[in-house]
């Protein structure tokens, strides 16, 4: 990046604003009138995505620093979650981004929507969890700071939850309405987004419906158009709750429909995702100081992807592919909590049943089909105990859980037009032992010590993760890699051991009112880390059916998912400064280093060090500012994976906000003010031949554009 560009960005940083992802971001009034569980500030980072103050003259409170009013809301809510300290974003398409947290991504980060966990439908994770959380419907995003508590289920790298709009109970018998909406336009991709909720509630009942519609064209960047980045998605649903005594019976349903959407880093594009969510249960007090939570849920995903509908140019008939994928997830959770919110003992059990089926076809040849994931199943059942309390002035949360996971796969069927190589691999897989059971154990200790304005804190944890169904049962050599999108061909491994992470974190929270600072240093030692390794010891020598098939598809050195030893360490922080009335300066900084412990190499796709700086003037009903995001170059790359380094960059944006009337606000801004060309290190690589982005180059960030958004709540 040119020096003058970086210089301009640094100069503007003193006038730039990006809301701090502060632990106290959730609106106080919302907490007081909602009976649903809320995040603990010392243990959770909360990004308040959609909030409209009741009055145009009401100033933004000091604990509302996470509102992303200075950015155009991305269609992919993962990009918002990535703004927490330690967060980063895998750019795999307009609706397919993945969250990286302190260097770990994919299934190592537990993603949920409205507290519901589920398996993705696509074999290449085109639908990570937040694919089903349109930004215009997201009320807040909660991210467990560093390590997720055992009560949230198994998770190696952390946990994140997107909470969509829901109407709340009131304190009177009369019915009240709750209307919310968000509408936005972005010029850089000529996109629009509309979303809202309509609800009725009183002290006993709450009923609401939500809906959203989003559509965008290919985005522009300095130098042309990134072809294949258009998107289209609809979501609608309903929710209800009945409050009896001190508890609530609740039920919700949503339908998400993603229409043709380009995915430039992948071999195939989305034709559709048709997904149904349903969950219900009970939460409340069943006796004095005894809380019960019961939740049952099911998610059904139906998916088609191909290289004909959106791909430009389309693949020739002999290379045409259409892949059908189904995924069903059923979950059940039960927990009992004894004591007060800040001093309790909790026990619970949960189960998760996943059934996936993936079939690859050629739309021009009915005799060509392969069941690449034939009825693969995972059945997990777990139990946990968690104790929150204090020893003198030292507060702590101590928990442990155990999970037993059984994984199995059916025998794959292949069509008569499939060549003998894949047919032989299918027969070998059918003859193998395709069932395994593994037990994992997690333990977490999080402790903190309030000392006036400063609170030292420490975390020690042991976390485990069982291999995914793809990593274990991917018998056919393909580019499916759960979103790595690196062009390598991978094959599964029936003998994978669970990943085991030993984690230590130390930091402090300082808050004097006018200044806050929250740094954290962390270390993760991971035994049996799962990543791509050479298929065999004769690298480059094609002496196996897997290597022959991979070579015919352009990769003579396929990778096998294997266990290695790794470590990650780093530091991240956020801060906020209010030097004078109405002026706020804030920022985040993140650094992580990932290394192999069993080889002289770096881990793959580790985000570079990055910095956010911000400042804003906040007036009565009117605010304005600018924002800076800068990333260092990344030269600590994986030689084994032939990962290329990336250059540093800095981008600046402007924003303004005006409260038009009670509950109604207009926001607008400019993104990438200087129209800088940049390629984020974690961006996927282009596979669209008709694009202005060269083949296999990293996708560039969007160019200069304007955006406007209208939000309301009545």
TrEMBL record:
It is found in: Cell outer membrane. The keyword Repressor does not apply. One of its GO terms (molecular function) is siderophore uptake transmembrane transporter activity. It is a multi-pass membrane protein. GO terms for biological process: siderophore transmembrane transport. Residues 1-25 form the signal peptide. Keywords: Cell outer membrane, Membrane, Signal, TonB box, Transmembrane, Transmembrane beta strand, Transport. Residues 234-673 form the TonB-dependent receptor-like beta-barrel domain. Coiled coil: none annotated. Belongs to the TonB-dependent receptor family. This is TonB-dependent receptor. It comes from Erythrobacter litoralis.
């Amino acid at each position: 990046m040119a020096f003058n560009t970086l210089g301009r960005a640094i100069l503007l940083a003193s006038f730039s604003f990006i809301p701090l992802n502060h632990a106290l971001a959730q609106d106080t009034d919302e907490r007081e009138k909602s009976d649903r569980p809320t995040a603990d500030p010392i243990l959770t980072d909360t990004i308040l995505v959609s909030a409209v103050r009741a009055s145009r003259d009401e100033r933004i409170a000091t604990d509302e620093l996470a509102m992303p009013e200075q950015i155009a809301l991305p269609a992919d809510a993962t990009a918002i979650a990535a703004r927490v300290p330690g967060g980063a974003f895998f750019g795999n398409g307009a609706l397919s981004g993945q969250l990286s947290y302190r260097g770990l991504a994919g299934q190592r980060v537990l993603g949920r929507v409205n507290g519901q966990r589920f398996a993705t439908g696509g074999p290449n994770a085109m639908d990570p969890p937040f694919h089903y959380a349109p930004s215009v419907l997201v009320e807040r995003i909660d991210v467990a700071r560093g390590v997720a508590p055992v009560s949230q289920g198994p998770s190696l790298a952390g946990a994140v939850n997107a909470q969509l709009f829901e109407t709340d109970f009131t304190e009177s018998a009369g019915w009240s309405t709750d209307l919310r909406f968000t509408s936005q336009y972005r010029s850089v991709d000529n996109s629009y987004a509309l979303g809202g909720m309509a609800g009725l509630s009183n002290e006993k009942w709450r009923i609401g419906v939500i809906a959203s519609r989003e559509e965008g064209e290919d985005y522009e960047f300095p130098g042309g158009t990134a072809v294949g980045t258009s998107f289209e998605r609809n979501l609608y649903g309903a929710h209800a709750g009945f409050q009896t005594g001190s508890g609530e019976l609740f039920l919700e349903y949503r339908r998400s429909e993603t229409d043709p959407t380009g995915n430039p880093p992948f071999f195939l594009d989305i034709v559709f995702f048709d997904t149904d969510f349903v969950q219900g249960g009970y939460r409340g007090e069943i006796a004095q100081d005894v809380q019960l939570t019961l939740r049952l849920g099911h998610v059904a995903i139906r998916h088609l992807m191909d290289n004909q509908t959106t791909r430009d140019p389309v693949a020739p008939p002999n290379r045409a592919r259409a892949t059908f994928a189904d995924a069903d997830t059923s979950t059940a959770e039960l927990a009992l909590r004894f004591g007060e919110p800040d001093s309790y003992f909790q026990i619970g059990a949960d189960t998760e049943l996943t059934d996936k089926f993936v079939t690859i076809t050629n739309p021009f040849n009915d005799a060509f089909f392969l069941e690449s994931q034939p009825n693969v199943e995972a059945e997990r059942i777990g139990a946990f105990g968690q104790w929150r309390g204090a020893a003198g002035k030292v507060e702590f949360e101590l928990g442990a859980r155990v999970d037993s996971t059984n994984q199995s796969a059916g025998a794959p069927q292949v069509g008569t037009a499939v060549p003998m190589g894949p047919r032989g691999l299918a027969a070998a897989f059918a003859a193998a032992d395709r069932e395994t059971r593994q037990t994992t154990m997690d333990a977490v200790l999080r402790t903190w010590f309030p000392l006036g304005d400063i609170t030292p804190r420490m975390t020690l944890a042991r976390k485990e993760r069982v291999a995914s169904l793809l990593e274990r049962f991917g018998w056919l050599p393909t580019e499916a890699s759960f979103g790595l999108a690196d062009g390598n061909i991978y094959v599964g491994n029936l003998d994978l051991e669970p990943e085991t992470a030993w984690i230590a974190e130390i930091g402090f929270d300082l808050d004097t009112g006018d200044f806050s600072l929250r740094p954290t240093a962390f270390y993760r030692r991971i035994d049996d880390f799962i990543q791509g390794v050479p298929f065999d010891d004769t690298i480059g020598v094609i002496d196996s059916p897997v290597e022959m098939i991979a070579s015919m598809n352009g990769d003579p050195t396929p990778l096998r998912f294997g266990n290695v030893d790794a470590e990650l360490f780093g530091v991240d922080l956020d801060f906020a400064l209010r030097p004078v009335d109405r002026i706020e300066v804030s920022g985040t900084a993140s650094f992580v280093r990932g290394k192999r412990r069993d080889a002289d190499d770096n881990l793959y796709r580790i985000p570079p060090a990055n910095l956010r700086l911000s400042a804003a003037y906040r007036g009565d009903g009117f605010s304005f500012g600018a924002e800076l995001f800068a990333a260092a170059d990344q030269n600590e790359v994986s030689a084994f994976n032939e990962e290329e380094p990336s250059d540093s960059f800095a981008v600046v944006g402007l924003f303004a906000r005006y409260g038009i009337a009670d509950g109604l606000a207009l926001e607008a801004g400019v993104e990438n003010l200087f129209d800088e060309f940049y390629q984020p290190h974690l961006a996927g690589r282009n596979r669209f031949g008709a694009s202005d982005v060269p083949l296999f180059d990293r996708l560039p960030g969007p160019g200069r554009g304007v955006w406007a958004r209208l939000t309301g709540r009545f």
